[in-house]
Amino acid sequence: MIKRVLVTGGAGFIGSHIVADLCEKGYEPIVLDNFSNSSPKIIPVLEKICSKKLELVQIDIKDKEKLFNFFKSASVDAVIHLAAYKAVGESVEKPLKYYENNISGLVNLLLAMQEHKVKNFIFSSSATVYGDAKVVPIPENSPISAANPYGRTKLMSEEILKDTAFSDKDLSIIALRYFNPIGAHKSADIGELPSGIPNNLFPYIAQVALGKLPHLNVFGNDYDTPDGTCIRDYIHILDIASGHTAALEKIASGFKGFDVYNLGTGIGYSVLDIVNAFKKASGIDLPVKPAARRAGDVPRSCANPDKANKELNWKAKYNLEEMCKDGWAWYKKHPEGFV
Ligand code: UFG
Fold it and tell me: Which of these is catalytic: 130, 150, 261, 269?
């Protein structure tokens, strides 16, 4: 039976929502984080949402010794591994930082699991592995590639996991390829908290709505899409979270080996669609300015979620209006984050 679930990166945007979902569904999450891109102040907030004290392990996954020591006494049933760096631009500047954390960290974790006979693993992968896909909506069996070191860490991680699962037939490993998670928890007390100027569209828009940034730069309006701006598959963070518990259930029902699933809605929205939906949800006018294309952006990225719908018995249930409403509620309630 899977009960005790270690969530690496459990204090981050995605991790905290997974921890809340695990609690709601009767699991016992253990939060592992080094707070390099999150705040310890989230812990009491999460405990309030979960109505219980949480087990917290402050370890850097690069620290093999501490990781091994933790596993010695932790009795973990499954690991959900999110702890990774994720800024595309930074990964081009500092590739070794990305390989050290995202690849060595993963290997350390798998070695610690092997040593302590933990057999169940869920990995946070990304739609970035599809690059500029020929077939959109994108099925899991599309060719995969990487355009930058960050993407390459996701690609390599999937390969490492496939080899590891092949070497030990008792392992159950599922990689989830996230499309674009946005929105926030219904309590409006946890959400995305990027440090500095956000790279991603939704947090950037929120900063404009809060008056902290003057306008949104729309990166490219001459793509071959209906309004000229890029199309993405935005998905509510609560749906991303429930995708993980669905994957745990698949493992609990006897799945062995390695498999990958898209977590997306299957519906694509342009940058301007998001701006308009956000305006509607917030009642705030958002100044936008056309800007040059951003290097590396693909015109269209949208999931074919059929495999996850069927085999994980999971389906995204929130629409864009709810993503914007819930996301904005979080930013409005906590404009400075956890202070
Ligand atoms: N965009 C703007 N202005 C901004 C920010 C973004 O116009 O200030 C546009 C981008 O050009 C893109 C769209 O909004 O067309 C979405 O951009 P995001 O940065 O929010 O998301 P991406 O799809 O580029 O990136 C996400 C993840 C990455 C992952 C990638 C592919 O953040 O980690 O999906 O899976 F690599």
Answer: 150
